[in-house]
Amino acid sequence: MEGGDALLHAHWRQRAIVAHLAFSTEGVDFWGNLVRLDLYPALPLDENPVGGLYMKIAFVASPRPAAQRALEKLSGRYGQCTVAEADCVIPLGGDGTVLKVLHSLLGATTKPVFPMRTQGSTGFVCNPLRMPGLVDRLAKAVRLDVPVLQADVEQVGGQRKTLFAINEIVLFRQRLQQGRFKLTAGGGGAEATIAGDGLALVTPIGSTGYNLSLGGPRLPVGAKFLALTGIAIANGLPWCRAILSDQFILEVDIVEAEHHPVRIETVLETIPDVRHARLFCNGNLKSTLLLDRDVLTELAEISSQPQ
């Protein structure tokens, strides 16, 4: 064991997994090194412009009345085609609708997604709804490539399944008793066992949602980081939130899974009775958002605010 692996092993042995973040711009990683998030700014706004016109559009609307009205007006004005035929997909609604569309496009040829928020919906990563000038907005929009999390899961009964997530993957106890989680970093060697309600692995785009309510760190939009945030970790352990490279692989074994059941879930899927989960960022998959320049600027400012 050499270099960073030795430091990681010693660090975990001494303090389990310790990565406390005092402010959104400063923290420590699993090696105990200072992490300056302000040195990893949001995606440069002058890079990754779309630079082209999208001629075929697929509008996908939530069932809410406001979204359905917008669908009727926009499709009447700009036309409507299937998602398979489209050059660009435009979800109408809020963040939930956006996530469903992004999930549905995983594994397919990457299609850019230009989300628009409709009345009555919460859309943190959405552009405002405007009827005129849509083609021009698409041409001027800024591209944001969003990382995709993957969980390879083994259940107590031996079944194996795979989950994907855009915002976060959460492991959580199924009963009113603590779960016990044995964590192994990067393919073996360094281990720690923690007890608590659960933990969440979070992308930058998801770090201002559920993760923030857990006390986890905000991550700059476009940064090559993930957040690992504990949920009600027991016994006063100092570990509750950590910053990881997006190349990090985390193996999670559920201790006595039959007696202390744990489920794993994303926004769209849940798998109960987990025995083991391998969590990582899948570099072969990506989702692409198109955002108005002012929307991305605001998103970057929010993600860098002190906590």
Name the features.
disordered N terminus, 11-stranded antiparallel beta sheet, 2 domains, elongated, Tumour Suppressor Smad4, 4-stranded parallel beta sheet, alpha+beta, Rossmann fold, 307 residues, 6 helices, 17 strands
Question: What features would you describe in this structure?
Answer:
By secondary structure, the protein is α+β, with helices and mostly antiparallel strands. Helix 2 links the parallel strand 3 (57-61) and strand 4 (88-93). The strands form three sheets. Strands 7, 8, 9, 10, 11, 12, 13, 14, 15, 16 and 17 form an eleven-stranded antiparallel β-sheet that branches. A four-stranded parallel β-sheet has the order 3-4-5-6, sandwiched between helices. It has a two-stranded antiparallel sheet with strand order 1-2. It has helices at 3-15, 65-78, 95-104, 134-140, 210-213, 293-303, and strands at residues 27-28, 34-35, 57-61, 88-93, 116-117, 127-128, 142-155, 160-165, 168-173, 179-185, 190-202, 225-233, 241-245, 249-254, 262-265, 270-271, 274-291.
